[in-house]
Design a protein that fits this description.
heterodimer; A: alpha+beta; Immunoglobulin-like; 6-stranded mixed sheet; 3-stranded antiparallel sheet; 2 helices; 44% strand; B: mainly beta; 0% helix; elongated
């Protein structure tokens, strides 16, 4: 039996993945669960939350991300394509000067970065930004 | 135990009352994600800083939960409002139970 071109490529990819021990990518269910844990299942609105992330990140090990949402009491950052979608949760205290925070995160590959803010009135707003990554940042 | 953990914080030396000041922190830490494998193919166990807090004169400014997706040498920038002179207290909590602390004074006029 002769292997087709597709079979050969497929096997090669699987072998490469096994060889490098690539981490499993979070499934849509994982992401949904992470969102539900934060929002307790509430629906999220839009607007009022600014998520600043680069459109193209050269190095997935170090991607600058900034979130800002006036009137928020907590903001969570999620990475839909990482092995574990949770990235960081910022809880703002009474001495907080503004509801913004900036950090640097790892991204395993091209994906959507999602931010959700819990507002003081208990509502939730969401923003997302698609980021392309040249070199992934989660092992492998 | 993670070696050579040094925290650096940048806080303005002085401010006027009610001013919003920008604070930047950086701490040296490998933030081992628990996803990587060593040369023998064994998973390197997770070892990260999982929580960071900043307080000003005992009042909380920000409380951050960090996950393995945070980069090596976690950098955080945020803002605080200062009404009177005092001290910012920064605390990082490591997975291995270590607690790293740093403080910075600000004079408010």
């Amino acid at each position: 039996m002769t292997a087709t071109r597709q079979q050969v490529i497929g096997t090669g990819l699987a072998a490469a993945a096994a060889f490098f021990g690539l981490p499993a990518i979070a499934t849509a269910a994982d992401l949904e669960e992470a969102i539900n844990t934060f929002t307790s299942g509430a629906t999220t609105g839009e607007g009022g939350l600014t998520l600043i992330a680069p459109e193209i990140a050269e190095n997935g090990n170090n991607v600058p991300v900034e979130v800002s949402a006036p009137g928020a009491e907590a903001i969570i950052i999620l990475a839909s394509g990482n092995p574990n979608p949770n990235v960081a949760t910022f809880n703002f205290g009474p001495a907080s000067g503004s509801r913004m925070a900036s950090t640097r995160i790892r991204l395993a590959g091209a994906q959507d970065v999602i931010a959700i803010a819990r507002m003081e009135d208990g509502s939730f707003i969401q923003a997302s930004q698609s980021v392309r990554v040249t070199i992934g940042g989660c092992g492998g | 135990m993670v070696d050579n953990v040094t925290a650096r914080v940048r806080v303005p030396r002085e401010a006027s009352a009610g001013e919003v000041v920008s604070i930047r922190t950086l701490i040296n830490h490998p933030m081992e994600s628990g996803q990587r494998r060593d040369d023998a193919g064994e998973i390197i166990p997770r070892s990260i800083i999982h929580r960071f807090t900043c307080d000003f004169n005992g009042t909380n400014v920000i409380d951050v939960t960090l996950e393995p997706s945070i980069s090596t040498n976690p950098y955080l920038q945020f803002e605080a409002v200062v009404q009177e002179s005092g001290t910012f207290q920064f605390t990082w909590y490591d997975d291995d139970g270590s607690v790293y602390e740093e403080s910075a004074d600000i004079a408010v006029s």
